[in-house]
Amino acid sequence: MHSQQTRREPAEPVSPSLEPAAAEPAPVRRTGAEDAPLDQERDALRGSPADCALIDAFFQATTAGLGVIDRDLRVVRLNQALADINGIPLEAHLGRTLPELLPEMGDAIVAPLRRALETGEAFTAEVTGKTRASDQPRSWLVNYAPVRARDGHVIGVGTVVLDITERKQTEDRLQEEGETLELLNRAGKQLAAELDLEKLVQAVTDAATRLSGAQFGAFFYNVTSAEGKSYTLYTISGVPREHFSGFPMPRNTDVFAPTFNGEGVVRLDDVTQDPRYGNNPPYNGMPRGHLPVVSYLAVPVVSRSGSVIGGLFFGHSARGVFTERAERLVVGLAAQAGIAMDNAHLFRRAQELIQALERSNKELDRFAYVASHDLKAPLRAIANLSQWIEDDLVDKASPETRQHMELLRSRVVRFEALIDGILRYSRAGRVRDRPESVDVRKLLDDVLALLTVPEGASIEIAAGMPALLAERVPLEQVFLNLIGNALKYADRPDARVEVRGRDLGELWEFSVKDNGPGIAPQYHQKVWEIFQTLNPRDNIEGTGIGLSIVQKIVLSKGGRAWVESEKGAGATFFFTWPRSEPDTGSGVR
Length: 589
Fold this sequence. Notes:
Elements: E1 2-8, H1 35-46, H2 49-61, E2 65-70, E3 75-78, H3 80-86, H4 90-93, H5 98-101, H6 107-119, E4 123-129, E5 138-148, E6 154-163, H7 165-193, H8 197-212, E7 216-224, E8 230-237, H9 242-245, H10 257-260, E9 266-268, E10 295-302, E11 308-316, H11 324-393, H12 399-427, E12 431-432, E13 436-439, H13 440-450, E14 458-461, E15 467-470, H14 472-488, E16 496-503, E17 507-514, H15 546-556, E18 561-565, E19 571-578, E20 587-588
Parallel strand pairs: 14-16
Antiparallel strand pairs: 1-4, 2-3, 2-6, 4-5, 5-6, 7-8, 7-11, 9-10, 10-11, 12-20, 13-15, 16-17, 17-19, 18-19
Helix pairs in contact: 7-8, 7-11, 8-11, 11-12, 13-14, 14-15
């Protein structure tokens, strides 16, 4: 029970004669030696017969509780609405003090009345308490206005009482719902952003414990290790972990089984009275020393695939704590938790795969380096031996033998080029440098300086090439391979290559067009495969790795590469490249 001032309201003085009186400081309360004047004050509060008729009509016409109290806190006048609020017949109020009538209200009702009498100020306060009309506490908004005699001194207090219990309950429910929604919103954002499984599970347990109103909550869930072993972990909220560290993990007992099997929610006002309780040895109930549990709530957490990840369990020592609303809230949170935990598992698996891939790439790098070194040494020996044999034979070797020796050495050169190509392919898209501002036009000029352009051939670079935030070397490799291929496979003395760019917003699309023999549609995919060439290698020297390197680099940048061509109509190779690459640091990826 309490009284709380909510707002200040100046009020016109209320007078039984209905005539306003000038405000004066309130006189001190009178003593028993002044009984005659006190009787006069009470008569003034009652008013003349004409005043009484008017006031009674007003009192009974309103649904608000109205009352007039004298300086001794006795009820002088009230209406039926106020009598109903107090749960006391109207006539039983008259002449009796409020402490006598409503002793259960105590200071909640007396203090604001004395304040109005002593200060002579009008104000509004909320009063909460119980009257004889209700077993449950109720709330009222009470306006207090001092009643003054014609000479201005305070002779009583007029009150207007409005029952605001339902409004307060609605406000409390709205506030509770708002707080709940805010908690759910924060929990949802946290669950969506958290990819660390242990932190995620603790956040779920904490949020669900608060939402349910439990004294403590726990989340038990199964985990599979990298070795394939399954074991149970748990988190605790509301109490120190030490309260549970001495007890074994929950088993599929009659009480726990529905949750671990994903059969549904279990909500009990008193778990000890449930027929499933206490049926399983060795404890036949809660182990000695366990926190007391009467109210019980358990909700399974299920993955997208329908498998049970684990269960949320809540306890309270009081009976009937967990409501349908609490159940709905925890079920909703458990659904979010299931999705979030799936994401965390996927993230963890992805991290494991990335680490495995990095280890594999390092092993591949070591293998490629060793293999190239070990393979190139005997190749050089073969080339040298063939030359020595040819030199030793001098005039004895036939033209056919000399041709075979030359062919042998050309095969050695091709094999060395193939080894170098494999090394370049294995590292394409994985060796990273920090992005820098790259003027594509200047980069293309540098690429042309590295190429041997046949006499009669021409290369046209369109205007409007962009400046990109990119790794220079990979982009240079792509253009070098595409322009070099266009010149190599032109198969005509007047080879012509056109390089163009097109702004696509976040990406730039580049194209390298030639006037060569073209590529039939059935080979448009094959040309990107490693070691594939459409011309016999004895006609045009090549390893079949260049376009594979192009595609691998472009894909590593989030772009794509493709070709448009018809047989006999030239070919145009396209690729896309980001306008701005993220800075992922340097090194091998």
